[in-house]
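User: Just a sanity check before I run the rest of the batch. Below are the structure tokens for the first item. I only need the designed sequence back.
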């Protein structure tokens, strides 16, 4: 009887051990199954999170777009400043040129030493000086007349400008204006000089007045 109970006790002990082992195995299997199933869930979550994050290229493009208006504004401001500076420089230059011309006009025509007589000149210059004095001008005007017509024609009665049709010693435009002083106006120095002196008197008063205007503007 005692041996029977001992055997029953052993059987119960073995059964209990088997039950404990079975339970432990089930827990391990359950944990292993749970780990296998959790991986796809975590992977899906990670994929969703990664998809929500902006890609590097998208971030760069967005940054470029956000900076583009600012860059355009800076470029426009720089261009406007450059245009304003150019306009200011042009206005200052124009003002300086006008001031220079005004100073030239206010200073009056230049004066040069008067010759002792018309005899110091020869050729057409001598004719010009003689006719100038006969027209009522003093010898002090001859240096201005000499410089003026030296510049215009070199005192050459045949001098002709094809572009403007100016002709003769005084460079009358057109040349046939001088026909009122003689039919041989194309080559006669005396006719040309008379016309030129009358032109100067009507427009600039004196030869030095005409020469001063020529110096400031390039023409008379």
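Assistant: Here's the designed sequence for the first item:
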């Amino acid at each position: 009887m005692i041996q029977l109970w001992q055997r029953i006790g052993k059987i119960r002990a073995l059964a209990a051990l088997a039950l404990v082992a079975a339970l432990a195995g089930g827990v391990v299997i359950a944990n292993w199954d749970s780990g296998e199933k959790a991986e796809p869930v975590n992977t899906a979550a990670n994929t969703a999170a990664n998809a929500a994050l902006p890609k590097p290229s998208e971030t760069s493009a967005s940054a470029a777009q956000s900076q583009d208006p600012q860059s355009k504004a800076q470029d426009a401001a720089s261009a406007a400043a450059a245009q304003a500076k150019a306009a200011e420089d042009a206005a200052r230059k124009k003002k300086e040129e006008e001031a220079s011309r005004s100073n030239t006009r206010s200073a009056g025509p230049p004066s040069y030493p008067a010759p002792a007589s018309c005899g110091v000149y020869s050729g057409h210059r001598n004719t010009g000086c003689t006719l100038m004095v006969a027209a009522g001008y003093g010898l002090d005007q001859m240096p201005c007349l000499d410089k003026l017509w030296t510049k215009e024609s070199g005192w050459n009665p045949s001098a002709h400008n094809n572009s403007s049709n100016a002709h003769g010693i005084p460079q009358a435009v057109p040349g046939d204006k001088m026909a009122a002083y003689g039919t041989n106006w194309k080559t006669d120095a005396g006719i040309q000089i008379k016309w030129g002196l009358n032109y100067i008197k009507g427009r600039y008063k004196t030869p030095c007045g005409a020469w001063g205007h020529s110096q400031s503007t390039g023409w008379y």
